[in-house]
Amino acid sequence: MTVSTNNILVTGGAGFIGSNFVLHWLAQRGGQLINLDVLSYAGNPENLASLRDDRRYKLVHGDICDASLVNTVLREHRPSAIVHFAAESHVDRSIADPGAFIRTNVQGTFTLLEQAKQYWLTLDDAGRKSFRFLHVSTDEVYGSLGPQDAAFCETTAYAPNSPYAASKAASDHLVRAYHHTFGLPVLTTNCSNNYGPFQFPEKLIPLMILNALEGKPLPVYGDGGNVRDWLFVEDHCSAIRTVLDRGRVGQTYNIGGNSERKNLDVVTAICDIVDELRPDAALTPRRRLIQFVKDRPGHDRRYAIDASKIEHELGWKPTEQFEDGLRKTVAWYLEHAGWVESVRTGAYLEWIRQNYEQRTSR
């Protein structure tokens, strides 16, 4: 069997990073893109509404744990690559329901790898040589850093501290094993915290934007001193395309934004931008809405990415400065009230109540 050279399969392409990747891929590439997505609470087909009449795009509503469905999709569309985004990704949800993370992130990745291997073995020599399985993972698999510790590099030992991080670490190890045991041509990327359009508003940046806009409390865990390296989602998408095009088979590439910030500094910056773009005398300054709340169990103190490998080997580095990317992100949420309301369903509101409103102030 031959591959369709320009066809790719994306899993989880209706989610935050996945939908940004789909849009940017189709803006620059030909061929067909098949999006396999279970359309859970964080998977929104409206993220890709602009592709509704685009014949290059096909949405398959289904679960990566469904081996028969994955097999059918691969054999019908014969992609030359799989880009695997599909995952449960919110640490707080993994604390409340670890089982869902084991199912999707571990069992789902295993199912996808097994079906990809069987499909890959049916390809002719050229198809097997050109095929790629790119697994998108997280810096959280490396654990937590101290204030003076060197940033995570690709050889940093894994030390996951949350059920989410542990499930992603397990999936990373499965991907590695399928390469070393079966020869499947894999690539793995571990990225820092993403931000940008279409992010489900349970995550820090969109939650704070919307709460600040509406004059609601801004819940900050602990003392707000936890540090993250922030990566604009469009930069992440360009990095994934670069790794897919030129990455060495079997290798891992860390992707970071070179933008370490304390959570509290991120929240205050959001307050100031919302004050500027949506002034309201009754709410300004919105910094006074900040409320320190009981910390998340096992909250990692600091993440930082050393992205020198991808820069030196593949010539990629982030282009978006955090201050500019954050302003673009705030503006997007302020300008897309309809999208926001469509995703804030009753189930979402119950989760916010459960996870934030019931936390006691410090």
Task: Give keywords.
Rossmann fold, 44% helix, three-stranded mixed sheet, alpha/beta, 12 strands, 362 residues, single chain, seven-stranded parallel sheet, UDP-galactose 4-epimerase, domain 1, 2 domains
Structure report:
The protein is an alpha/beta fold. The chain has two domains: 4-196 and 230-255, Rossmann fold, CATH 3.40.50; 204-227 and 261-297 and 322-351, UDP-galactose 4-epimerase, domain 1 (Alpha-Beta Complex), CATH 3.90.25.10. Helix content is 44%, strand content 17%. The chain contains 13 helices and twelve strands. The protein has helices spanning 16-28, 67-77, 91-96, 98-121, 125-130, 163-182, 204-214, 233-246, 263-277, 308-314, 322-335, 337-343, 346-357, and strands at residues 4-11, 33-37, 57-61, 79-84, 132-138, 186-191, 193-195, 218-221, 227-232, 252-255, 260-262, 290-293. The strands form three sheets. The chain has a seven-stranded parallel β-sheet, with helices on both faces. A three-stranded mixed β-sheet has the order 7-9-11. The chain has a two-stranded parallel ribbon with strand order 8-12. The longest helix has 24 residues, at 98-121. The chain is globular, with a radius of gyration of 20 Å. The model has no long low-confidence stretch (mean pLDDT 95).
Shape descriptor reads globular
Helix-strand pattern, N to C?
EHEEHEHHHEHEEHEEHEEHEHHHH
Strand content: 15-25%
Give the tally of β-strands: 12
C-alpha termini separation: 61 Å
CATH class of the largest domain: Alpha Beta
Named at the architecture level, the CATH assignment of the largest domain is 3-Layer(aba) Sandwich
> Rg from C-alpha positions?
20 Å
Largest sheet: 7 strands, parallel
Number of domains: 2
Q: Give the rounded overall mean pLDDT.
A: 95
Q: Give the uncertain stretches in residue-range form.
A: none
Helix tally? 13
Helix content: 40-55%
* Strand order in space, largest sheet: 3-2-1-4-5-6-10
Structural category = alpha/beta
- Using the coordinates shown, work out and report the CATH topology of the largest domain: Rossmann fold
* CATH homology superfamily name of the largest domain: NAD(P)-binding Rossmann-like Domain
